[in-house]
# Entry
Amino acid sequence: MVIKPGKLLSKIDSPDDLKKFSKDQLVQICDELRHFIIDNVSVYGGHFGASLGVVELTVALHYVLNTPDDQLVWDVGHQAYGHKILTGRRDDFHTNRIYGGISGFPKRKESEFDTFGVGHSSTSISAALGMAVASKYKGEQRKQHVAVIGDGSMTGGMAFEAMNHAGVSDTNLLIILNDNCMSIDPNVGALKDYLTDITTSHTYNKVKDEVWNLLGKFSKFGTSAQEVISKVEGAIKSAVLKQSNLFESLNLRYFGPVDGHDVNHLVEILADLRDIPGPKILHCVTVKGKGYEPAEKGNKTTWHAPGLFDKVTGEIYKKAPTTPQAPKYQDVFGHTLVELAKENDKIMGITPAMPSGSSLNIMMKEMPDRAFDVGIAEQHAVTFSAGLATQGLIPFCNIYSSFMQRAYDQVIHDVALQNLQVVFCLDRAGFAGADGPTHHGAYDIAYFRCVPNMIVSAPMNEEELRNLMYTATQYQGPFSIRYPRGQGVMPDWRTPMRAIPIGQGRIVKEGEEVALLTLGHIGNYAVTACEELAKEGLNPAHYDMRFVKPLDEGLLHEVFGKFKKVITVEDGCLMGGFGSSVLEWMIDHGYQAQVKRLGIPDAIIEHGEQIELHRECGFDPEGIANAVRALAAVEFSGK
Ligand SMILES: Cc1ncc(C[n+]2csc(CCOP(=O)(O)OP(=O)(O)O)c2C)c(N)n1
Ligand SMILES: CC(=O)[C@@H](O)[C@H](O)COP(=O)(O)O
Ligand SMILES: [Mg+2]
# Structure
């Protein structure tokens, strides 16, 4: 079903079309854009509240800027649906995040209006500054460079590294701080308090409004915005910002806060700011979910990415299960951590801005002094955990596999080199699904297994996750546990916990001719494949290895002693991953076998449902079965 855009929106195929409308029509365009987003996301899914909150900003930016010549960078990009719709992707928008369709994030290869590929947060200021410095170097004086960054993303260290540089850069850079007081969960930290203070300060806002009024009056007499600003700037600084404005102190001219939902005012301000050279920041106050009551008034975290819903009633569809359902791995983590923490007062929980996504919110609610959301700050989360560990505490640091890429140095330098007891729980390991390549947890096996002291493990089901978490509390060093997005396989998952000897795998099924060695949840696909193959008289053995590091050497001696045909299966990159570790072991121990490795190839795998991506890479149940069939059919030519 293709959703029809409103009357004006249907005429906008590019920002040039938008510019043909009068300023008076912008409110209607915003309204139509907002409804088009609501109509589409309710039926096809995706991120929601963030895009609704920047509708006016999006329209104003494309109305004033000369995109794509002027460079517009969206931070994270989950709020860029309006941008996509106004820049030629309106008629493809129903394919958003669907296999083969457009990406849910800006992507350079998708459109010339997508100046920078995003998905991970806090990169926009650095990228836009790079573009601005390049323009300066090339003598492109009038080119605008704009980074739109949320208050949540502003908590990421990179944003501050970039502002520190921007403040001495003398470039044509505008940072737009889209402040809605929300990350996915409510935003946290001292910066949030600071932004609230500045937004609600009565004195500050009174003077600020007078300044804008003055600006309007001066403009009428032909005085340039730049002259006005420099005249009043000193006065504002001494009268209002005596205690110093954080951004001003970094040499960024600060404007705002302004109402981010007044499209006409935004157009005026952006046009004025375009004429003011140098690095500057515009603080816009917006409401996440603006214009859709259930999202605006309801639970904003739920409406960040609600899934499909009835746009009229606001009811979010939930499939009514006909059979008892297995829980999500994240919930097994969340509940198990509380269970462990009740027994062991050294256990602490840490998440960088994903309390709901990781289910650490369960512990944050029950034990608020022992569980921390540290903001979008993966590097800090790891070193903060290391600090806790030096004092004899046992931090469980839960970070999505792909976000952990940010904190790799901290894992090595601050944790592994000092052999500190930090438990890394890597959620969303393997394919993330509709979020696509920026979010796939493809590399963690490879990047963790080469780190000295690190234990690398993955549970095949809920019981194993619980046992591995328990085991980790007893190991005096870094211990990582990876598990995927979504559900496990055990409806009755609250099993008593027991320690697993570190490096011990298990036999799932005895068999002949071919041995399947799997790591983690993906092993359940091998179970399904074996059931199918049994119907054809094929009977491969199946081993759940559980650990990549250390490998279960006893089990491997058994496997390579008995089998000359071996298949490894992992939902991680093939290069340097689990299969590679098995091959290395085989060579080192003088075995010969025909080994087929299934996993993520050396390629960018786009977005889609997890099963579609597994199929594409040949390790869905059918792909595994095919690999067994193929190997069973060939003669082993070695010793
Ligand atoms: C490095 C990194 N960590 C975590 C995330 C997950 N994440 C995506 S959006 C988001 C919240 C961003 O908040 P904000 O920038 O204020 O945008 P809003 O959704 O409020 O518009 C988070 C934590 C991410 N994309 N990148
Ligand atoms: C934009 C972003 O990075 C998050 O919103 C991400 O999409 C969350 O993923 P999960 O839905 O797997 O928590
Ligand atoms: Mg926000």
